[in-house]
Amino acid sequence: MGGGHRIEPTGHPAPPAGDVAKAVNGGRAGTVVQAGAIYGGVHQHPGRVAATLLGPEHADTLAARNNLAYWRGEDGDPAGAVEPLRELVGVQRRVLGPDHPVTLTTRGHLARRLGEAGDPAAAFEELLADRLRAEDPDDPLIRTTRSNLAYRRNALGR
User: Fold this and answer.
1) Closest Cα partner for 17 from 3, 30, 32, 6?
2) 136: Cβ–Cβ under 8 A, 6 or more apart, which residues?
3) How far apart are the first and last CA of the chain?
4) What is the pLDDT of residues 6-49, one digit of tens each?
5) Are the C-beta atoms of residues 28 and 6 closer than 8 Å to each other?
6) Close Cβ partners of 149 (under 8 Å, ≥ 6 residues apart)
7) Name one Pfam family in it (predicted).
């Protein structure tokens, strides 16, 4: 296959790892706008996108969509990250299941962005109930969700 893409054992071309690595490292280094732009290119460029190459429900495509929304929120646009995260959660619930750890993690990102955008703590309340039902009670993510819920409740004066 042309274009210099690596082929995975499934026969599908892999997304360009160099661009993904640049986005991750750029975001970690504080260049959030650059990371978002790179993820946008990885996710949207028709010749290179995970969605085009691997399909819209492939795990790598879902990860790219999550990362794109994450960096959008980190770049100061939490409200702009909400709808892409809501759409992604819908796909993940259908493809992975509502209790899958990746689905629950994305719901945590959505709850965070809803809180930053000024919405109440309801998303964290629902997430905590689902985590308690689906995960081990000692899972560190349950403690994180409880902490985030307490923070949001405190911000609301509850």
Assistant:
1) 6
2) 142
3) 58
4) 444 444 454 444 544 454 444 444 444 455 555 555 444 432 45
5) no
6) 121, 124, 125, 128
7) TPR_10
The closest of 44, 114, 101 to 73, measured between CA atoms, is: 114
Instruction: Dump the DSSP string for 22-86.
Output: HHHHHHHTT-HHHHHHHHHHHHH-TTT-HHHHH-TTSHHHHHHHHHHHHHHHHTT-HHHHHHHHH
Give dist(CA 112, CA 124) in Å, integer.
8
Alpha carbon 64 to its chain's center: 8
Model confidence over 47-103: pLDDT tens digits? 245 566 677 888 888 888 888 888 888 888 899 999 999 999 999 999 999 999 999
State the amino acid at position 55 in one-letter form: G
In eight-state DSSP terms, residue 15 is P
Please choose, from the candidates 92, 94, 91, 110, the residue with its C-alpha nearest in 3D space to the C-alpha of residue 102: 92
Look up the pTM and report it.
Answer: 0.69
Is the CA virtual torsion 16, 20, 26, 31 positive or negative?
positive
Torsions phi, psi of 13, nearest 5?
A: -70, 140
